[in-house]
Design goal:
seven-stranded parallel sheet; globular
Length: 280
């Protein structure tokens, strides 16, 4: 595994789901991890789990919609450990962005989602970059999605926001590579977190099998998959990688769509009674 010994990492939305997977893998790799999350109770539980396995971590309550909270988050990492080497901009609940197209999304919803999806990444990076520069460089990893590469129906704000994260990643990589700061994005496929499993798949195992069949590796992802990718991109092993949007998607996005569609129809025909988790 890549080595982050002595590095200081901040993970926004680091308390649960993909964020917890990233926090855990960062700690296993040797980083000191600041778990920044709106849910402080769960963040503390994640920190406790890291401490129990010999890692170093702390928690801070952070609302990524608040500029002041994001400033305080960076200040807290500096206060605790002297610097920031790694920033993972992860926080956002994907379900919040699946609220319709341009006609259905309200102006208020648009503003709120763009702030959470895009502005938070800008602001977190803005406050962390000067601190990284003081230490000679660092790594920013922005969590985008396969939804930033390919578009789904009736999910205007999520698709737009995640695509913007990829563009912002590339632009920041161009600006700050010269001062030793690399900026990359990860584009996860379907990641089965505890919450997703309980809310969608526990009572619908056939539906999960259908989702797994969509992936060339014939499984969906788990938070550890994204955590491992984030650790690699943050490590010296990735020192010549910047501005890259890395799909961690089991091959989902490499498939020819017309063949893929036929495959899915055949699967559904061979498995009558399938229950889909949504309809668009």
């Amino acid at each position: 595994m890549s080595d982050l010994t002595g590095k200081v990492a901040i993970v926004t939305g680091g308390a649960q789901g993909i964020g917890a997977g990233i926090s855990d893998r960062m700690a296993v790799a040797g980083a000191k991890v600041l778990v920044a999350d709106l849910d402080l109770e769960t963040a503390n539980e994640t920190v406790d789990a890291i401490l129990e396995t010999g890692g170093i971590a702390s928690a801070i309550k952070t609302d990524v919609n608040s500029y002041q909270d994001l400033r305080s988050m960076v200040d807290e990492a500096q206060s605790l450990w002297g610097t920031v080497d790694v920033l993972v901009n992860n926080a956002y609940n994907a379900a919040d962005g699946q609220q319709g197209g341009a006609l259905e999304v309200t102006e208020e919803r648009w503003e709120r989602d763009m702030h959470a999806l895009v502005t938070s990444v800008y602001a977190g990076s803005k406050y962390a970059i000067p601190v990284m520069a003081e230490s000679g460089g660092g790594s920013i990893v922005n969590i985008s999605s396969v939804h930033g590469m390919l578009m789904a129906r009736k999910a205007l704000t999520y698709e737009t926001g995640k695509a913007a994260v990829i563009a912002m990643t590339r632009q920041m990589a161009v600006d700050y590579g010269e001062i030793g700061i690399r900026v990359n994005a990860i584009c996860p496929g379907h990641i089965v977190t505890k919450r997703i499993y309980e809310s969608i798949w526990r009572e619908n195992p056939k539906g999960l099998k259908f989702f797994e069949d969509q992936y060339p590796v014939r499984r969906t992802g788990v938070p550890k998959d994204i955590g491992n990718a984030a650790v690699f991109l943050s490590s010296d092993e990735a020192s010549f990688i910047t501005g890259h949007a890395l799909p961690v998607d089991g091959g989902l996005t490499i498939q020819l769509q017309e063949n893929f569609g036929v495959q899915q129809v055949n699967y559904a025909s061979d498995n009558p009674g399938l229950e889909m988790p949504y309809r668009r």
